[in-house]
Structure formats: C-alpha cells, structure tokens
User: Fold these one by one.
Assistant:
Number 1:
Amino acid sequence: MAQTTLAAANMQVSHDKQANIGRILQIIEEAADRGVDLLVLPELALQGYIDFALRPGSPQYAAQRRYFISSAEPVPGPATEVIAAAARRHGMHVQVGMAEAAAHGGVVFNSAVLIGPDGVTGSYRKLHNQAEYPFFVPGDGVPVFDLPQVRAASMICYDLVFPEVTRVCALQGAEITLMSTAWPMQGNDPANDYFADAMDLLSRAAAFVNQMWLVISNHCGAGAYSSKVEYYGGSQIISPTGRVVARLDQQEGLACYTADLRAEVMAARTEAFFGLSLLADRRPAQYELLTRDYTTPPGRPAAARPAPARPVTASGGDQR
C-alpha cells in the first residue's frame, strides 16, 4: 500500500510577509518531523488577509490596498523559491496561499500555489471573491495536478460554498481537494457559531458527495491585523466518506493523517455507499440549469457579480 501523510495547518498570520515566511518554514520543519508528504497552509498565509474593519475611502484602507499591491509576488517568485527549497529537503509538497502579482501589471490574485521538490507544480486563483475587490480580482479555471501519491485540486475559502467547484474538481479526476482558507467566526465562541458550523457542514458534504479527500487549512485565533475578526481554526482532514479523521480547534498546530489515499477513494466510489459511485450515477443532461446565470426574483437584492480583472495602481485607483 502507498501510504501518504497529509497535514493541515492552523496558523496565526499577520501583515508582515517576512514574519509569515519565517513561520511557514517553521511549520514545514514541524511537518517534516512528523513525516508529512503533503502540507496545506492557509489562504494568504504569505501576506495576511484583508482587514474588513477598515472603512473604504479611509487612509488606512488605501494603505492596505498599497500593501497588497507592493507585497504581491509573481509565481514562481522569491517566496515560492524559498518554500521549494524547504520542500526539496524533505521530499514534500506544500500548498500556500498568497497574493499573486499577475504578469499584466497591477492585477493581484488571491492564489493557492502548490509547490514541490521541483518548484511550482501549479497554482489556483480564487474564483469567488466578490467581497475582496478592489484588493483581488477573480481567477478563471479549476486546474488539477498530478502528484506522486494522488491527483489533486485546489480551492480557496468562499469557493467551498459553491458545490460546483468541488464537483468540477472530481469530474477532472481529482482524488483530493486542498483548501486554503481564512474562515472567520461571527463572534468568539467556536462551539456555537453559525459561520463555524457552515464550514464544517459544507466540508463534510463536499467530501461525501464527491467521494474524495478534502484537506482544509485555516487561520486561527484573533487576526493580528483586524480588530473585527476572530478566525475559526478548525483545520481538518476529511475522508472520501465524509468522515473527519483529523482536526484542530483554535490552537496553532498540524492536523495529520496517514492513509492509502487512492485506495480509500476507490473504496468509497465502489463499496462505501451501497456500492454506488455518486459520480458515475450522475445524469448530466438533467442539470442544464446549472450552467445558467441566476435570475433574481422580483423584490430581492441582485446577486453580487465578480469585478472584471483590471489593474489596480499602487496609489489606490483603478486603471481603466
């Protein structure tokens, strides 16, 4: 059996890129000590997440926009090279969330980059980030990556709310989806919080209906850059039958689990649920409506639309 050790990190992140990269390297070393083959780190682990407590139009808001523009990096770039060197030492693959500077100047994506011993394996740009503009623009496409142990896909945070994303991952042959997130709570009680419950419910459902692994890495504790948000933590690993096999609460650390990943996916799709394959038994011709835009019923607010990908200048204005 080909055993693989997965790890999901609970990590406290700040708006200090050098401090964050130092902590990322520490976590990689901790993971190596535990024999980890595939490590997932949070959304924007390199730069820190947005502080939504800041008022649009304020000097602090404009400064935060400049921070993300100036700290964004290309892929591959300096940070991915440093992480790749650590991954090479330990024969590990690492997914890290970061602000990615696009090749066409001024555009910044909220990306999850998968890095291995040979460098960047691939990257994913968050699809659903309507609330994050003008800091980040939405990406396009759901790539999958062939790793030595498993076929993998990536997603970021709010993408989890849209079941189409994980379904597209599975239909492209992904056996595991790696999710980097900055999932908040409404308050500070993880045992009784609507947002926290939502992440757990959606995660187990996504793994179950697609009969694949799901690994989630989150920020934890109070944001070092926000007076408004406390992060849920709850980094976890979910099996292809929807069972949580490893999980953290709000403390920093690693949730780890070792399994024959491919064998458990095959068992889930052929034996676990009455021997039914929930992918093979689909009837795609009956789901045509899924490809149509949502029509807002009368009297209800219109659905948010993603902002177009346009450059954002360091001074805070759009280049149109």
Number 2:
Amino acid sequence: MLYRALELTLAPALRAVYRPTVSGAEHVPTTGPVILAANHQSFADEFFIPLGARRQVLYFAKAEYFTTPGLRGRAMAAFFHGMGQVPVARSDTRSAAAVIEIGVEVLQDGGALGIFPEGTRSPDGRMYKGKTGVIRVALETGAPVIPVVMSGTEAVNPPGSRLWHFGRVRITVCPPLDFSRYRDFADDRQVVRSATDELMWVLANNSGQEYVDSYAADVKARLLAAQAS
C-alpha cells in the first residue's frame, strides 16, 4: 500500500526534479524473478533503480533502519517495511545464510531483487570487490542477473550527508548475464568467485570506476581505525 502511494508521488517527483536518463530498460522483464545487481555510491541508488527497472525492487536493508528508538525510528521502520525492505544484521555472521534464503524466497515469489554486490557504499567513488551472495542466489533460483550502473547519485546524496542536492542521474541497464553454466558447480567456491568477478567486471567496465580488489567494508574499517588513532 505504501509502495503504491510512493509510486504515485515520489517517483514522479524524482523524475521531474532529477530527470534521470535511463538506457537499456528493455532488458528488465516486466514480471517474473530477476536480480538487479548494481554499483553503490549513494543511499539514493535505492530510489532511482526502480525508475530504471519500471517495477518494484526489493532490497536488503541494514537492521539499524528498523531498530532506531523514538518517533523518528518508528517512522523510519514503517517506511522501510512499507517499501518491502528486508532487515539484515550485517555484524551477525549468520546473516549471510539468512540473506540467501530470503533472496531465494523473494525470487520464488516472482519478485525483483536489488543487490549491491559490494555490500556497502563505496567510500571513495571506486568500485570494490563483490561479495558472492548475488551469484549464490542466482545459481539456486536460476533467476537472470542484470547489471545496473548508477552514475550521478553520489552528487545527489553524497555519502555521509543527509541532504539531497540537484544533479543529473544516469541509469544504465546492461543486458542480462547468464550464469546457468555454473549451476552444477554452485558449491565450488572458486567457480562462484569467478562468476562474481565476471559480474563486477561488467559493472566496472560500464561505469568507468576504478576497480579495487578489496572489500569496501574492510577499507571503511581501516579508515575508521585510522581516524580513531
């Protein structure tokens, strides 16, 4: 219900104010399971990707968005629940398996699942090593993986800022990737890693971002440690 209300209000407002340019929207099926795997430079990415997909996209969201105390916290939790977001406790080592299970359920219900393979927003505009969850979900469900490249959102809502600014957003929907040849090797870590790297190469090649063979979360942790010392 809330999503429908936002679709009628927020989506037209985003189109009118930011005039996002979308290319390749025809690659996204209008119905049925699909995984939209995107680069991640801004919180705003989650709002613009559905404009390019032209359908509701479900994401995994930080558990903190659902547990913040007070009136603001309750409003935030209601918003994310209404949008169909799924809470994930990133610090919980068991969450990785839970994420895959929930992702499989979303796709088995015919939904569009939005995943940011980097696991978190880029701390410096570069693209970081992808986590393998997206491929594990794809291999278990057979859902197509469609790379989505976002550009301009980092200026609209810079990391660490609560304010939104005027800017131009470009959404590039790439042709779907077929990983069906790997389905018999879903338990092979090297194969899953190779398929994940293939996806990240497509994202990096189409975004123009410099690729870093490290996890973004590790880089953020080192930056925080350096600031604290």
Number 3:
Amino acid sequence: MRHFTHIADLGVDGVAAVLDRALELKACPQRTLFDARVLAMLFFNPSLRTRVSFETAMLRNGGSAVVLSAGQDTWKLEDRPGVRMDGDRPEHIRDAIPVLCTYIDALAVRCFAGISDRDADEQDTLLRTIRELATVPVISMESAREHPCQGLADMLTVREHVGALQGRRLTLTWAPHIKPLPLAVPHSFLLTAAACGADITVAHPPGFELHSTVLDEAARYAQESGGMINFTHEQRAACAGAEVVYAKSWSPVEVGNATALLAQHSDWLMDLPLLNQADVPARFMHCLPVRRNVEVSDAVLDSPLSLTVPEAHNRYFIQVAALDLLLNGGSDA
C-alpha cells in the first residue's frame, strides 16, 4: 500500500487487515516498529484526538513526529494551480511538499471540507494533490471527503464491545447542530461498516442525503462483503432495532439554506429513550467533539451505553496499525 487517504485504498480485504493488525498490536504492543522513522503531520485545520493519537503512535513505537500547522508553523500555503501568487500565501504546495518529503518517512495531512460546494468537497482536491506531489507515503488525518482512520476506529470499537461485524445491526443517525458540518465522518462510518459486512441503517431528515458517489461506493462494498444498507427519515424506527447507534451531524444538500434547515430538526437530539427501545439497549457512539444537549444529551454521553471514550482510545491502535502497513508492510520489522 503506497498511500492511505481513502477507504478505497484498502478495499474490503484491506479494512479487515487493518482491524486485525490493530487487535494484534493492542494485545502485544511492539515498541520498535518505527525506529528512526519520522512522520510529519501537516494540519490545515485543528485537532485534538487525531494529533495526539498519531503523535503518540510514533513516539511509543520508536519513531518521532513533527507537527506543522499550515500558516503558523509554516508559511501560508497556496494550493490553487496556475495562480499568480501576489497575495498572502508566499509558498505553493508544489514546492513545499516535495521538499518536506526529503526530510521524512511519511506524511500525514488534515484538511477539512469547505462545505459550500459538496461536489468540490467530494473531489478532495487538496489531499489528492498533496498525495500526487509526495515522494513518501501519505496518510489522511481527515479530508473533505473522508476520515478513514476514524471509520476504522469505529469498527474496531464495535468489534470489541458488541461482536463480529458481519451482519451487525448499526444505525447512523443525523444529529442537530448549530452550524453545517462536513460529511467526512458519516461518509467514513458508512464506507467502513459496509466493507465489514454490517447491516446499516442511515437515518436523516429529508434534504440531508450523503453524497451520491459515496453511497455508490458503499453499495459496492456491501455487495462484496455481504452487508446491507437501508435509508429512512424515521430516526426512532432506525434506532429501535440497532445494536449500535452512531450519531453525527452533517450539512444539508442545500447549504445556502442550512441555518433554517438545521433549526427545523432540533428534535433529532440523541437521547436515552432512542437507545432503550429493546430488552438489550443499543450502545452509543460519536467521534467527538460533541456539543452536549445540542447533538447528544448528557444522559446518553454519561451513561454506561456510551462508547465514546474507548472509541477515541482506539484511534491510537488504528494509527499504529495503519502506519505499520504503510511503513513496514504490516510486519514486525
């Protein structure tokens, strides 16, 4: 595997390989996987869990990490092709990325969606351009289209706390928010769960559909893995038969009307009655950060049903496993 920026880089078999490797490393930690290796982490957007889990993944396994915030630790970086650079961005990524790669063994990048143009976000132009320019392996720390390591950590958490992923009943439900959010996390949850053969229900209000190309990709994975994907506008019904409920907000298709649309659906707040509809309550997941009592109630987040902390903890093991596959081919070298 040359790069890992999208679930498509793994496919169904690759997703299983990363999860298996993460479980191996969690059971038997290796302290020298990345001896003398250097990971540069380039952030165009802020981070807490992603930064710390990647940085500690390198440090605890014999390597090191260089953290760079674009425009703060570096010059402001231009990424538009053919532009006359007479503004406040004095360095182009076409120059910066090849030079940066001469110092390091791998490059991790975080660059969020612009949200104003769904199709442009789906193209993931900035990350794909960096990937083309890089001379070392590139791994995504979230981009406009996907957050693949989050999706893998989600599936690792389900596997550990609920059971084997094949046929597992998972619900991805939209949640309210004060502003429109990117689609990367819900996209990755859907893609990764489909690759694992889960039975997935996606619930959202009308007008909040995920991107069609991602839905098509997820359908291909589900066909290959034996999974199923269903869609509904009924949140309560979607949660009723679920073993795991994953709540996450994302922007509507009509972004220009987002404020009004978000305000109409505050009743999609995730609360305990949605989880307690069966003899065995559903477990709850969210990628964090979360706006308490806007997206999810305190009662859910502070209940024994919540898996948000182990889910976040599993980010570390997924980062180690993914970096191991990139740098070592998944061996104990």
Number 4:
Amino acid sequence: MTRLVFLKILTLAVLPLLIIGGFTLYFILPAPVVTEQAREQNTTLSEEHKPVQHTETIGTSVQGRDITVTSFGDGPTQLLFVGGMHGGYEWNSSLLAYDMIEQLTEQPDMIPDNVTVNIIPTLNPDGTYLTLGTEGSFEYTDVPNPAKRNASGRFNANGVDLNRNFDCKWAPKSTWRGKVVSAGTKAFSEPEAQALRTFVGKVRPEAVVFWHSKANNVYASECHNGVLAETITLMNTYANAAQYGKVESFDAYPITGDAEGWLASIGIPAVTVEMETAERTDWLRNLAGVKAVLQMYTKF
C-alpha cells in the first residue's frame, strides 16, 4: 500500500469522527454568558458612536411660525450659524443653512468631538413665507423667481428690519442702502430677536456666523469697544477658505442695532458672510468655510 493511499483511507476514517465530536461539544458545552455589565458596555460604546442630532423650536415669529435650531454633536464648544435674518429677500441664506443641515446629517464625522454645531436656518420665517409661500425646508425650485428680489420679504410681519433690532447702538430708525427702516420700538422688541437672544444665552456660543447676501465678503463685528481679536481670526479663517474678501469694519452706510454688534458687546465673536450673489448659495465655498471654522475650534 502506497503512502498516498494510506493517507486517503486514514482521512476518510477520521473525518466523520471529528465532525461528530464537534457537534457533540457544541450541544454539550454551555453557551458563553453575556453579563449585564457587558451588555451595558456594548450599548454605551454603540451610543457613543451614534451621531447626536436634534431639532427644537426656540421661538415663534410675529405670525406664529416656528423658529427652529438643528444641533449636531454634544461637545462643550458651541458654534452657531444663522440664516434667513432677512427672510425671503435673502432666501439663499436659508437655503444654504438647510443644505448645511443635510450635509451634517449625512456626514456627522465632519463635527469634531469637542464641538456642537447649531444651525438656525430661518430667523425670519414670516419674511420667507411672504416671498416663497412655503414654511420650513425648501428647494431652489420652490423659489418663484430667483433673479428677482422681494424687498418686502426682508422685514418681519411688523415691518421691522430684524438686523436693526438688537442691543448695540440701537435707535428706533436705522438705514439700509440709504433708506430709512424701522428698528422696532426698542432693542429686542421683536419676537424673532428675542428668540435668538434666548438661545445665545442658553448655549453661550464660542462663535457665530451669519449668512447674508450679497457682497462677496466676510465682515467682522464690533460695538463700542472695537473688534475682538478672535473675531479677526474667525473672519480670516472663513474668508480664506471660502475665497471671500475680508472687511474688518463695515462702512458702506451707518448701521445700528445689528445682531453681530450685539454679540461683540457681550464678548462673542461674530462675522457676517455676504455671498457673492442673491441667486446662489456658493455651496462649495461656504462648505469650505464651515469646515475651516470647525477645524479652528477643534481641540486635539
């Protein structure tokens, strides 16, 4: 008998015994016990890797429409991005905000572990509704005439320019491109401005970015004590990444009661991002700007 034949016979004889023995051990030996502690550890690890996202209502407009904020992450460093201050007149600022919410929903790993990102897509929902006839999230195709701006949609339902209603150099009348506009009866007289003030007081953001259009620049903010040093860094970071111009002091015409100036007065860096046109969101540019700001506030 050759060695090869002998090995084949041995294999045919031993293999069934190994299979039978394996099944026997499987049914005889007790199954491994998963302790409650192990289950809790596995659950905790699983939850730690789930993206934290929630949307809440932080106030209502003059006409009772919800003002919402969508938050991502649970880090101690709070960042705030705001669109739709001027409602339907700057609908692209809200569209950009909604697109950014979708981006972070699909790619939550963009957010550093130490950061919470908060996005208010539309601070002036009444002005947006006046222009678009829709509430909440919308698409570019929902805009009736993207090339035509509706000036009436800039103001809230009381006819107030919300970006003149905050407590920095406030005056009852202010200006917008040479026109006199209402700033409300007093600082924070409008429910939309109150909603932003309440949320800022709640989370105390490290920095705030407002999206507007159109000037193709990023503007720093100041009130009575000049521009904060970190505001300059924030402006440069966003502008360089998004390829916008940089302006440390807005001097095109006098402005009173702006939200960015109010934030500067309470020690919070804030910038205004003015997109290049009123018809687009400059998506890739602003995505690069947001990523740069997130990187700026990342702690290794």
